[in-house]
Structure formats: structure tokens, C-alpha cells
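Usage

Read records sequentially. Each one opens with the input sequence:
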Amino acid sequence: MNSDISFPSHRGNRFYRGAAASLVANALQAVNFLGDRFLRKSHHSLSAIEDLYRHSMDSAFSVTEAFLVTGAPHASAYYPRDFAWFYPDVLDPETIMDSQDAVRRVRLLEKSVRLLLEAVRANVVTTTIVPAGRGRYLGVNYFSRPSDTLLGILAGLRQMISVEERASSYLAMSQCAHAGRLLLAEYGDDLKRAILQLASELEPFDDGGTRYLLCDARGPRSAATDTRAERRRFVTNACVYTTFVWGVQLGVVEEIELKRLLGRDLAQYKQDLLRLFGKDGYIRHSLDGRAGTPASSVALDFVSVHRGFWDMNEASERALFAATTDLVIAEPRFRIPSTFHFLVSADNPRTKMIHKIAAPAYQGRSSWPTFNVEFADRMLDYDEASGSDTYRACAQGILKDIRTATEVHGGYQELISEQGLKYRTWAYKGAVAHSWFPRFLSVWRRAYGTPLLQWND
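and closes with the structure output:
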């Protein structure tokens, strides 16, 4: 494969949203799930971690792919937030096998980010984009409006532009950084408009005589665990804060413009969120949750995204993170027995009818390996900021158990059941999450000091 990459524009794409688009999108997704249910072939028999990784990368970044997706049954649709939550290290040089792998990753990342930016330009900022053939795309919100769609798009851009900060011998990396800067210049005004609109949508919330701003004060907003259908969640508001910070860092929007809409600077906005959600001494998952034990008020998605909400700069922030982390570690209901696999929550959240049929434990009593990897990475962030080794052993245990599960199940799983098995329901057969795999290798290298896999290109 030629290492010189061209990035063609796709001006013919059209984006639609609305009641009719949602109806068609849901019908297409139903067909996708049924097709996966009855047509998915049995998985390959590889077991060595190196062979599994090579197979996964060849699949995730195939030249035939039109967009970077996870490999799950719903991956026929495109999820903008995934670039923040699930694959922020696609371009980590230590996870790239060879120059052809680098070229495939760069090309697919650029195609994906460009498509999402075209959707923003068309004012289609939704949780999900469903291809409908011939350059036609349907924007649909599953369950609620997004809090993290713009965050994912910014994450993709950041990854492209910052790739030159990592030492690499691959020519494709410098070409990717250049392409990222061109995309930012071309679509920067569209992103600015969308970010300012998001800021204008924040709603006042009064608590104890203090006025806060939330993105979901009156209605739920989605994030990576959006089907909980809850209001006033920490993770959705942390995503919005991070969107603003990344927008400023990329030069898309000026902080003074955000301050004018928010009535406070970003530092104060963050402190307000910590004070509101951390008033009990730990980060509460949702202000609307029913009363219960502290562990029942916590969910693993509090770890947020890579280089996102948690920067651990302040002692008070580190204390809140540590208290929340200790609740998760100490509560047996958070853990698959005899492992360091942590579940999303200690209790099943409220569900909708579709989840009772298709995925009853998807947001509660199941383990997302990618959330566990981010949990481990935030632990390492804490240790680095505090000058301690408080959580390193736990972080290593998390990664070790994910490696074991990967080898046992024959690939990097999207979900693991409460019993530590492949996650299987009638409509969800336990998909392999190919494109989440590089993030695992990146955090493994940080936790252990040496790479899990090495390549000779």
C-alpha cells in the first residue's frame, strides 16, 4: 500500500433528521440487529494475544471500511461520541503494527471525522448517524439528545492534529496532522456555532440556594451510557464541560464567548459541577437517583474520557476522585467475582421495554472493558499527580484481567456479562470490539512500563 495518502472531499453527502428520518433510521437499525442475530458467523479460533490483535486491526481498519466503528451489531450506524470514549488512541505509534496499518488508520480516521464535520455543517448534531445509501445519512437520537457528540468530533480532530507530538517513523502521521489542521480550518466556524449553541442550551438548577448550570436539568441527555434515561447526571455535564475546554484549546471558540453565555469562566463552571455532584464527599452518578447506600449512587462512567474532565490538578479534586474510586473498589456488587472486572453500577438502572427484550443488563450489571481501561488510566493519573502508587496495582489487575478475557473469548469484547462470560442476549450475541483494542495497549504500556506487544516494521 502506498504510504502517500490523498484525502478526497465528499461534497455529495446529504444529511437528514426529523420524524421521518428517525422512523427510517430505526427500521434500518432493526434490520441490522436481526441480520447480526441470525447471520453472524462463529468467531475465529485464535487465542494468542498477538494473533488476536493482528486479526482485530486488519478487521477494524480494513480498506473496505467507510467509517471507524466498533464491530458490534449496531456498528452499521456511526456514533460520533466513540472518538472520545472508545478509541482516543487509534494513532498511538506503539499500537501500530506496520506502515500499511498506519496508512489504513489515518485514512479511515480522516474519512470518519470529515463525515461528522459535514453533519455538523448541515446542523445534524445527533447521537447516531445511520447510512441510508448513495451518500445519504440519517441523524437520529436514541432515547435523548446528545451531550457528547461534539466532544467526540473534537476528540477525533485533536487526535489527528496532535499525532506529531508522539515520536513516529510513519510518514502517514505527519500527513494526518496536516489533514487535521485543514479540517479544522474548513469546518471551524461550523463547530463554533454548534459549541455556542450547546452553551446556550444549559439550564439553571438551584440547590441549597446556589444556582448551577446543567445540560440536563429538565430532561435526559445522552452520553456513553445514555439508555439510563436519567436527568442531572454527572457524566453528561462533565462531557459538556470538556467540550468547551477542548473547543478553546483547539482555537475553535474563545473562552470569553463562552463566559458571556455561561456567566462564569470555565474554571468556576468546573468547580460548580464538582461542588454539586460531590457534595456528599464522592461523585454521585445522578442527582435524580433514588436514595440508597453511597455505592448505589455511583457509576463507573464517572471516569469520563481520556484527558477529559479529570486533570487531578487540585487536591480537592483528587480527594473526590479517590473517594469515588474507593467506593467502587470496596463494593462487591461492582465486581465480577475473583476479578478486577468492574461493572457499570452496583444496581440495575431503570430500563425501557426495548432493553428488557434486547439488552437487559447493558447499562448496569455488565462490564464494559473500555470503561475499565479508562478507570485504570484515571487511577494512573491520580498516582502521577499525587506522587504515589496508591492505585497502580489495581490498574494493572484491571488490564491483566482484560487480557485474560480477550484470550478466553477470542477477541476484545465490547461487553462482559455479570458472570464474566460473553455478553449474550437474544438480540446481542457478544460482539468483538476491534477498534477499542489499541486504547487497551496504550494504557497497558503506561501501567506496566513496557509494551504488551511489539512490532518490527
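Summary fields computed downstream for this record:
- The chain has 14 helices and seven strands.
- Residues 134 and 149 are 24 Å apart (CA to CA).
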